[in-house]
Amino acid sequence: xxxxxxxxxxxxxxxxxxxxxxxxxxxxxxxxxxxxxxxxxxxxxxxxxxxxxxxxxxxxxxxxxxxxxxxxxxxxxxxxxxxxxxxxxxxxxxxxxxxxxxxxxxxxxxxxxxxxxxxxx
Length: 121
Hints:
Blueprint: E1 2-11, E2 14-21, E3 25-27, E4 30-32, H1 45-57, H2 71-77, E5 90-96, E6 114-115, E7 118-119
Antiparallel strand pairs: 1-2, 1-5, 3-4, 6-7
């Protein structure tokens, strides 16, 4: 599974529309599938991880600031505080999934020729 793009709109510290290109790039013919996020404290690094968790797992997401809040209260608290709450917030994640199928037909043939010195009965 490859995350290609993350879009945040009014989600936590991200006011307005923000797009993150997460697609792996090639450098000298080799894929570089690692994306690094850096920034100051409170800059939104953990928010990006929370957004990915939330969009993938919904209610079961283990987000950093949820604590004991109900799911609905947590979602309300994720709307950026500088915008009208009626605008809401949104998260979009575009990903690629490559499936491989492997089929095997195995037969376990066992013949008991003798057991404890006696023939098969």
